[in-house]
Amino acid sequence: MRLVLLGPPGSGKGTQAARLSAALGVPRISTGDILRRNVAQGTELGKKAKAFMESGKLVPDELVIAMTAERLKEPDAQAGFILDGFPRTIPQADALAKLTALDAVVNLFLEPEELVKRSAGRRVCPKCETVYHIVTNPPRKAGVCDKCGTALVTRPDDREEVVRTRIDTYERQTAPLVRYYKERRLLREVYASGLIDEIALRVQEALKA
Ligand code: AP5
Predict the structure, then answer these.
(1) For the whole model, what pTM was predicted?
(2) Domain, as residue range, for 175
(3) Is 209's pLDDT higher than 90?
(4) Is 140 tagged catalytic?
(5) Which CATH number does the domain housing residue 165 bear?
(6) Could you give the 3-state DSSP secondary structure of residue 13?
(7) Residue 155 catalytic?
(8) pLDDT tens per residue across span 166-176
């Protein structure tokens, strides 16, 4: 299965992509995670991406397209993948279409105020990248990753003013992809409000349709 998860920041793409990845046995490819790893390691790509990410803007297309094309060549992605956070612009979508054919694109949609609440309460594990929420999806022990015991952190781009810029960036640059994929008959719309398990069921149903 070759899937794309679309949706604004905080809509639950990463959470649902992790579940789908486990259920379908194909890798979740999160461009946000790959970029954050590059920033943490201080690579050339990370140095170029850091300021864009921390201000809520998109990293330039040419960098992200080259990075994703490399990732899609890896052996684990040959039988399928779940792309989380890519494409985010029409040029990225056109580039992806040249690299591979997709089976479906799931668009998670949610009201802006809910997006801000989800991002404000998010905590992430800097080691294994597991995502939590202090209210809706808390770790067993506050502030500590269930899987690897590492202290959880807040993403620098989860400050409210940056989240609002990210939502605005999404509306201007990424939302046009909803129509793009509708026209190509790949789009499946999923309302992303409710329990994480409920959304997972909605995604499954949407993929069967
Ligand atoms: P990226 O990491 O992709 O961020 P994003 O798209 O803004 O998405 P988020 O990670 O914020 O949210 P999500 O939808 O995955 O939600 P999550 O599951 O975590 O990108 C970061 C930056 O990298 C970008 O701003 C850009 O600079 C750069 N970048 C990345 N890709 C790029 C590209 N292709 N082109 C250019 N630049 C790029 O859930 C959010 C919270 O809600 C969590 O706490 C979670 O536990 C909780 N939650 C999830 N589901 C539910 C639910 N149903 N109910 C209650 N809480 C829930």
Answers:
(1) 0.95
(2) 2-208
(3) no
(4) no
(5) 3.40.50.300
(6) helix
(7) yes
(8) 999 999 999 99
